[in-house]
Design brief:
CATH architecture: Beta Barrel
Radius of gyration: 14 Å
Oligomer: single chain
Helix content: under 10%
Strand content: 35-45%
CATH class: Mainly Beta
Strand order of the largest sheet: 2-3-4-6-5
Number of helices: 1
Number of domains: 1
Distance between the termini: 29 Å
Structural class: mainly beta
Number of strands: 6
Order of helices and strands: EEEEEEH
Length: about 130
């Protein structure tokens, strides 16, 4: 019996709103913006095309290991972290806003490098078929 941390759940960024606070997730997203003052990356991945979800990723725990290439707009990065509740001052998962925003506390973040986005989506949605 292992008493280590629970593994992360691989999911599409668009599926993050269905996750509960405290769940550990792994997802791929494209950096839309980075706030130096708050240490927050805003990430999106329009897959499926009608997805309107943004992940607000708090990188304060990993700032010392974060490189400029991982915060650059347009960069694809992988994130492992915990879903967190929206701050009281934030709209969070407000259905009337332009985006459904999900807050994530990053534990690990790394550049995706060259990748086939369509193949990634198939791999996440249908892991057996991708092999």
């Amino acid at each position: 019996m292992s008493f280590g941390p629970l593994p992360s759940q691989l999911c599409l960024l668009a599926a993050l709103p269905s996750k509960a606070a405290g769940e550990k997730v792994r997802f791929l997203g494209c950096v839309n913006s980075y706030s130096v003052t708050s240490g927050t990356l805003k990430m999106e991945h329009r897959s499926p095309p009608d997805a309107n979800v943004a992940a607000l990723v708090d990188v304060s725990l990993i700032l010392e290991k974060l490189g400029a290439e991982q915060t650059r707009t347009g960069e694809w990065v992988n994130v492992i972290g915990y879903i967190t509740a929206a701050p009281k001052s934030s709209g969070g998962r407000n259905p009337s806003s332009e985006h459904s925003e999900v807050h994530v506390q990053a534990l690990l973040l790394w550049s995706a490098g060259p990748l086939d986005i369509q193949q990634y989506r198939v791999s996440v949605e249908h892991p057996v078929m991708a092999r």
